[in-house]
Specification:
With about 300 residues, the chain is an alpha/beta fold. Helix content is about 35%, strand content about 15%. The protein has a seven-stranded parallel β-sheet. It has a five-stranded parallel β-sheet with strand order 2-1-3-4-5. Strand 3, helix 3 (about 60-65) and strand 4 form a beta-alpha-beta unit.
Length: about 300
Amino acid sequence: MKGKILITDSLFISHEHEEKIRVAGYEIERLDKPQATEEELIGALKDKVGYILGGIEILTDKIIDSAPALKAVVFTGIGYKGFIPNYEYVTQKGIAIGNTPDGPTFAVAEWAVTMALAMNRNIFDLGRGGNKKFSTTKGIEGQRIGIIGLGRIGKEIIKMLQPFRSGPISYYSRHRHEGSESELGVTYSELNDVLSGNDIIFLCVSNDAGGDFIDQKKLSLIHDNALLVSFVHKEAINTKALIDELVAQRIRFATDHVIEDTSLQDLPLSTYYCSNGSTAFNTEKEIKTVSDMATQTLLNLLETGKDENKVN
């Protein structure tokens, strides 16, 4: 046996991929909890050479210090820094970090476009869960689209929007993507212009954007009744400022996270929609893709120390 591997939670890593790990010569231990505690992880990782982080637990220095045999950690998603905030310390200890950057891309983009369609067609209020029988809605056709963050998911959203005959699409990103502009038919604009000049805005930034990336001043730039769609970490938008805008029903918002505030409970679903739990990534096809990528990435890192999904 080459060593033991810990897999947390039960959503990711199928039995098919477990067998792939065993065939490669490793023993598997599963901790089927979505959010293991520091104490539980210290106990589970003490003799492991590999770790697939499939839950929403947070790694700490204390956990890493208690795992002397650990060689590689693979996160089953893109934004690993939210779950491995001490990633610099982890790599300094000689532990490789990998993720699955292409795994959730399609599913998350699909969720975002679905939200834009549902909110702009007022699907929720016009259905049996709402109280409206008839309403002329906006749809997506002719709507000006803004993309904030032109990474994998931002690009996929643009591709998905093509059949819906939207209006012009502009984007903001820390780095301009001139090649993608001609390929996707989009134009670059400054952040403030993307916020102020569009009817539907998709927030696609990574955790690197930091907290309050969209603060009160930036929210105020969004024009009345525009729709903001977000699947990124909650802290990217200033919560108090967002709540004020929603309570006033000045802008509309769809998110893959719950905002814990009673003042939002009675808002119409056409103004504010949230998932009961983060589900944007959770389709059968994408879960299988992530399972495959995470497994292969971990094996590559353990066997060679190299993989295209190793983060720097």
